Amino acid sequence: MFFHYILLQNLPSLERIDLGKSARLIECPNFSNVPNLKHINLEQCESMSHVDPSIFNLPKLEELDVSGCKSLKNLYNSTRSQSFRRLFAYKCYNLQEFISMPQNTYDPSTIGLTSSTLHIRNLKVVFSVHICESLVDLPENFAYFIILYGSMMNEKDTLTTLHKVLPSPCFRYVRRLIFNDCHNLSEIPDSISLLSSLEFLRLFACPIISLPESISCLPRLMFLEVGYCEMLQSIPSLP
C-alpha cells in the first residue's frame, strides 16, 4: 500500500519504472498520476495475474515489458496510447487475450481484437511473444515486427500451431519476423510463403533441419539470417 501511495503522490516526473524480477508482486500498481511514464518493465513478475488498466491510459507510454509473467492472463484494454511502440510478452504462458493496440499519429485508424474495429496500417510496433494459438485472433497489421519465442508445447504441437498462425491476419503484412530460441521447432511451415510483405527473416538458435522451398517465393524478402541453428542441413535455392 505504501508503494502505491508513493507512485500516486510523489513521482509526477517519473519516465521509467523497473519492477522486473519481482517474483512475489501480486498486484500491479496504479499509474494514473504518473503521466510522464514512457517505459514500464514488469518482466518476470511471476505472481502477477493482470496489469492495472491505468497503464493503457498513459499518454507518453512507449514500451511495456511483461515477459516471463507466467500468471498473466490478459493484456486487453479498449483505451490506447498514441505513443505506444513496443510490447514484449514472451514466456507469458497463460496469456489468453492481447492488448488493443494504440491509435497511430500518422494514420488515424484504430486497432483491436474485435471485428467491429478498424485496422491500422504500417503501425511501427514491435511485438515479442511465445508461439501460441492466441496469435490467430489478432487483427491485421497488429505489428510490423514480430519476434516469436519457443513455448512449452512439444515439437508436433508447435508446428501445428504455426501452420494455423502464419496464414492468420496478424502476419499478413508483417515486415520483420524473427524465430528466436524456438527449442522445439525443427522446421518452418511452407505457409510462410503467404507472408507476402516480409522483408526480413531471422532464425536464431532453433533446431531446424532445413528451410522450406517456399521461402524462395517471398517476393519482398531482402534479408535472411540464420544463426546458431546447429541442426541445419540444407537450404533451398534462393533467387
Structure at a glance:
The protein is mainly β and about 240 residues long. Helix content is about 10%, strand content about 15%. It has a 9-stranded parallel beta sheet with strand order 1-2-3-4-5-6-7-8-9, with no helix packed on it.
Overall outline: elongated
**Proportion in β-strands:** 15-25%
Quaternary form: single chain
The ordered H/E elements are HEEEEEEHEEE
Please provide the count of β strands: 9
The averaged pLDDT comes out at: 81
In spatial order, strands of the major sheet run 1-2-3-4-5-6-7-8-9
Distance between the termini: 61 Å
Structural class: mainly beta
Overall tally of structural domains? 2
Largest sheet: 9 strands, parallel
**Helical amount:** under 10%
Instruction: Report low-confidence residues grouped into runs of 5 or more.
Output: 101-123
How many helices?
2
C-alpha Rg, in Å? 19 Å
Descriptive account of the structure:
With 239 residues, the protein is mainly β. The protein folds into 2 domains: 1-100, no CATH class; 121-239. It is 8% helix and 16% strand. The chain has a 9-stranded parallel sheet with strand order 1-2-3-4-5-6-7-8-9, with no helix packed on it. The termini are far apart.
Labels describing this entry:
2 domains; nine-stranded parallel β-sheet; elongated; 2 helices; 239 residues
